[in-house]
């Protein structure tokens, strides 16, 4: 039987990096064999810690850019493309982030795509200890946004825009 591979995003604000590294090390046996996507600094530090604890284990990491330098957006893109099943994003609730809009966008995309998402260690502990984490039959539901994506079908928006431009050009 083929091993279940979860695709996991790992992100942490600076004040929470140590907490996420400790959480990953604590749960490293459960995390072995899964695929990881990490923002730059966080991923580099986690890889270093895992290599120290498990020098003979090959880990599958994709390191993105640092969060404020586009890594949050790269992570969001992978979520939208269906490449991430879980996002463990340890946020710092006490510090205003200069890239707060990127953080909010990433949080929103996790919700839009209905992936498993948490922003603190307690929730991460509950997620990884859930029987669903290793259940090969568990599949998240994919929201149906066809009503939204088709909201302009059978509406004359393009025709009206073309006519408007034609009228403006005739007035010149």
TrEMBL record:
<dbReference type="InterPro" id="IPR004363">
    <property type="entry name" value="Methylgl_synth"/>
</dbReference>
<feature type="active site" description="Proton donor/acceptor">
    <location>
        <position position="72"/>
    </location>
</feature>
<dbReference type="InterPro" id="IPR018148">
    <property type="entry name" value="Methylglyoxal_synth_AS"/>
</dbReference>
<comment type="function">
    <text>Catalyzes the formation of methylglyoxal from dihydroxyacetone phosphate.</text>
</comment>
<dbReference type="GO" id="GO:0019242">
    <property type="term" value="P:methylglyoxal biosynthetic process"/>
</dbReference>
<dbReference type="InterPro" id="IPR011607">
    <property type="entry name" value="MGS-like_dom"/>
</dbReference>
<protein>
    <recommendedName>
        <fullName>Methylglyoxal synthase</fullName>
        <ecNumber>4.2.3.3</ecNumber>
    </recommendedName>
</protein>
<comment type="similarity">
    <text>Belongs to the methylglyoxal synthase family.</text>
</comment>
<dbReference type="GO" id="GO:0008929">
    <property type="term" value="F:methylglyoxal synthase activity"/>
</dbReference>
<feature type="binding site">
    <location>
        <begin position="66"/>
        <end position="67"/>
    </location>
    <ligand>
        <name>substrate</name>
    </ligand>
</feature>
<feature type="binding site">
    <location>
        <position position="99"/>
    </location>
    <ligand>
        <name>substrate</name>
    </ligand>
</feature>
<dbReference type="InterPro" id="IPR036914">
    <property type="entry name" value="MGS-like_dom_sf"/>
</dbReference>
<feature type="domain" description="MGS-like">
    <location>
        <begin position="1"/>
        <end position="172"/>
    </location>
</feature>
<feature type="binding site">
    <location>
        <position position="17"/>
    </location>
    <ligand>
        <name>substrate</name>
    </ligand>
</feature>
<keyword id="KW-0456">Lyase</keyword>
<dbReference type="GO" id="GO:0005829">
    <property type="term" value="C:cytosol"/>
</dbReference>
<dbReference type="Pfam" id="PF02142">
    <property type="entry name" value="MGS"/>
</dbReference>
<feature type="binding site">
    <location>
        <position position="13"/>
    </location>
    <ligand>
        <name>substrate</name>
    </ligand>
</feature>
<feature type="binding site">
    <location>
        <begin position="39"/>
        <end position="42"/>
    </location>
    <ligand>
        <name>substrate</name>
    </ligand>
</feature>
């Amino acid at each position: 039987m083929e091993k279940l591979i979860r695709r996991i995003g790992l992100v942490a604000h600076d004040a929470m990096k140590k907490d996420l590294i400790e959480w990953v090390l604590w749960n490293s046996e459960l995390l072995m064999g899964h695929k990881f996507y990490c923002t730059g600094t966080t991923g580099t530090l986690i890889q270093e810690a895992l290599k120290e604890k498990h020098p003979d284990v090959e880990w599958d990491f994709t390191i993105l850019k640092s969060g404020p330098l586009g890594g949050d957006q790269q992570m969001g893109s992978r979520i939208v493309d269906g490449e991430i099943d879980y996002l463990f994003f340890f946020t710092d609730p006490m510090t205003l982030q200069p890239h707060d809009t990127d953080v909010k966008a990433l949080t929103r995309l996790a919700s839009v795509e209905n992936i498993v998402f948490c922003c603190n260690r307690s929730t991460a502990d509950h997620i990884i200890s859930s029987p669903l984490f290793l259940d090969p039959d568990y599949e998240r539901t994919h929201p149906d946004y066809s009503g939204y994506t088709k909201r302009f079908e059978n509406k004359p928006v393009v025709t009206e825009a073309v006519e408007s431009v034609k009228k403006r050009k005739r007035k010149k």
